[in-house]
Amino acid sequence: MTRYQHLATLLAERIEQGLYRSGERLPSVRSLSSEHGVSISTVQQAYHILEDSQLISPQPRSGYFVTQRKAQPPVPQLTRPVQRPVEITQWDAVLEQLIAREECDVVAFGSGAPDVTQPTIKPLWRELSRIAQHQEAELLGYDSVYGMRTLREQISRLMLDSGCVATAEDILITNGCHEALSIAIRAVCEPGDIVAVESPSFHGTMQMLRAFGIKVVEIPTDSVTGISVEALELALEQWPIKAVILVSNCNNPLGFIMPEARKRAVLNLAQRFDIAIIEDDVYGELAYEYPRPMTIKSLDLDGRVLLCSSFSKTLAPGLRVGWIVPGRYLDRALHMKYIVTGSTSTFAQMAVAEFIRNGNYHRHLRRMRQHYQRNLDVFTCRVRQYFPCGICVSRPQGGFMMWVELPENIDIVPVCCALREQNIHIAVGSLLSASGKYRNCLRLNYALPVDASIEAALRKTGEALSYVLENA
Amino acid sequence: MTRYQHLATLLAERIEQGLYRSGERLPSVRSLSSEHGVSISTVQQAYHILEDSQLISPQPRSGYFVTQRKAQPPVPQLTRPVQRPVEITQWDAVLEQLIAREECDVVAFGSGAPDVTQPTIKPLWRELSRIAQHQEAELLGYDSVYGMRTLREQISRLMLDSGCVATAEDILITNGCHEALSIAIRAVCEPGDIVAVESPSFHGTMQMLRAFGIKVVEIPTDSVTGISVEALELALEQWPIKAVILVSNCNNPLGFIMPEARKRAVLNLAQRFDIAIIEDDVYGELAYEYPRPMTIKSLDLDGRVLLCSSFSKTLAPGLRVGWIVPGRYLDRALHMKYIVTGSTSTFAQMAVAEFIRNGNYHRHLRRMRQHYQRNLDVFTCRVRQYFPCGICVSRPQGGFMMWVELPENIDIVPVCCALREQNIHIAVGSLLSASGKYRNCLRLNYALPVDASIEAALRKTGEALSYVLENA
């Protein structure tokens, strides 16, 4: 970091902390220069950076002032979903969402895709190239139904970072976290069963439940601390629930990391009511805190947690490489893996294994965590700037998803349609609810670096939301 | 083909046709030389080839004689499975089979793997290398739930060879034929339903049916003409059957190609009883006849046939690239694809698409058809030589699977165990029956070129079968 970048960061922090208040005049260039023992031009460059990020603005012949800004919007309250088992619908809306992501030149705020353009991903291409040049005939043959041992060994090591001890024998490789979740649900549930889910929760998982003829009870969930343990307990007392499905770290869509005490409380409940926990950790390695948060799986002594994950969010979804650690359900999971796809593409598995083995994965993770955290700052700033007052916004602790909530009487489905005509694609919250709630919410993907088109799209989205709020 | 190879082939044909009978003296080298207008040494070389393949044997000072041979074993009779819906078991045996295929230095007669060592597969590696070098970020992102358009377009063209007109929009890419079948079954059936299958039939499909809680009625099947239309009709009259699953071309395990009239008859029955047909065409392009046989799908006007296929048998199973043409079940199949794996590995899809586009796939297919047909000749010869009298052997019309049947009172499960200790792995027929029939049968994979170890393994298998027959 250069001197002027360092100074800019320092000043930005002071502004964030309120040491310089909104509208207040900042120290003169000369006084800052002597205070910090840096040159005049260094201070000027620092002020230019802050000006570019719209934290400060110059006034002719008066110096720099902290920009008049709206206050940070509050976080969403605890959700209040329907408190009984419901059937999942919404497939048509999900399909529309999937098709929208394939359109060209669309700003895909609604997608679940990570940024795959960072330079630290380059070694993955080199591994693929090397594999193609080596021409090992073995890679063309049927892989083990467990997946390649070399990759399972690498994953076993990775999992230690989350406090989880799993050997290569405990791990099955899957076609992304999608297949892992599909296997987990099928390994634990029968058609007609009931499972508990966070509310809101990932639409993909809910569509799986729908296809398997499973009903869900949506549990109230806090945007900072996660699923309500009290509400989960009540639901477990009331309904014959088979399993609870959680994204405990860097939740999709709310962004929270469940505090350790809450993770333990949920595990205790699962033990008391003898149910399984399906833990989706696909965003866990993208937590902004270091070391990464632990999983519920790492606390699990009796094998009731089925951990599902993949390299789709951390590395690249096109690889379709994920895994499941099914605990005591290993035999059933193995059968499911066999009947669903038989095995997983060997090339992608091999490339990922080598990418990890050569230290490139951890390097890439560091980069991506920084990148997403920086993007979150920029998006938060823009949302504050462009989006209307009266909204609530989540404070993601990892990953690249933001949840925006408007007053409950607002329906943003028409806003989505209007924005789509301007090639802006947002995901309406109701996709993430079994009972079609959260039509006043939206999920915002902030994975991509903010360029002019994203900047413009955020502004247009803010305008559309303001319009609907003013005319409600 | 050189002159002496041509002559050897001609003579071998005459022996097969019975123009020269077992034990009969062949024409002298001199007379053949003048008859065919070739040199003495050409005839001598041709005779050496026939001697090497044990068709003829020299007797000192008397010339060459047609080898005294056992007669070609008869083909298996129409199977007679249980005529009522049964639940499928056998998972433990299938799993054992899957694990056996991973062992080192095993002669895997029991596997379903193709030969991936032929030189015509090399361009596939080059495509993979080229893709890795181009580094298109798009390949790292989420693929369409339909699969890559460029591959679907190529498949659409390939399907014309089987008389089937399907556009890219009618095709979904899957993780191998396995996922295609899994999707097809789930798109058509609900738990508790009944489907009709050939008997014997592919154990993978049956395990899927088991996992989905579906019962099967096994229909008597002829090793030359396929499923009995009469028996299928009776079953349809008697039970509320939802679908029939067929490997109509180069059947696994019996090797037949259903005659066109029978394909039409089955389709007519499906129309009359308003059921779906799930057609597994994964071996169809490996038919020894040219042009390749048509599919039932190509006759299907009302979209009731779900065609499932892949590049796993024709190219390489490690790719995990297959497809489904689900006809009128497209919407349901799309949902199933989404909930099972979401999408398919992009690298493998891209490599296959380019491999086809550059004409390498058709070149490879020609090579593999010839290779498997030649291997069939060698295996048939060895089976005749080493295996005991009193067995029946199928006459595969494509693919690389042979079905061997011993008398019904014989149980070859202990033979399998004994052979496995000698690193020879055969698949007992009962794996391919829902009701555990065919313990007197085995399926033999003849994909690999016959080398010394395969030769020895065939001999040992023959000895073990002879032993059990003699001691029955």
TrEMBL record, chains A, B:
Record PROSITE patterns: HTH_GNTR (PS50949)
PANTHER family: HTH-TYPE TRANSCRIPTIONAL REGULATORY PROTEIN GABR (PTHR46577), TRANSCRIPTIONAL REGULATORY PROTEIN (PTHR46577:SF2)
InterPro entries linked: Aminotransferase_I/II_large (IPR004839), HTH_trans_reg/aminotransferase (IPR051446), PyrdxlP-dep_Trfase (IPR015424), PyrdxlP-dep_Trfase_major (IPR015421), PyrdxlP-dep_Trfase_small (IPR015422), Tscrpt_reg_HTH_GntR (IPR000524), WH-like_DNA-bd_sf (IPR036388), WH_DNA-bd_sf (IPR036390)
Domain of life: Bacteria
Any Pfam family matching the protein: Aminotran_1_2
Location of the HTH gntR-type domain: 1-69
Name of the protein described by the UniProt record: PLP-dependent aminotransferase family protein
GO molecular function: DNA binding; DNA-binding transcription factor activity; pyridoxal phosphate binding; transaminase activity
Classification lineage: Bacteria, Pseudomonadati, Pseudomonadota, Gammaproteobacteria, Enterobacterales
Keyword list, A-Z: Aminotransferase, DNA-binding, Pyridoxal phosphate, Transcription, Transcription regulation, Transferase
Family to which the UniProt record says this protein belongs: In the C-terminal section; belongs to the class-I pyridoxal-phosphate-dependent aminotransferase family.
SMART domains, per database record: HTH_GNTR
Organism: Dryocola boscaweniae
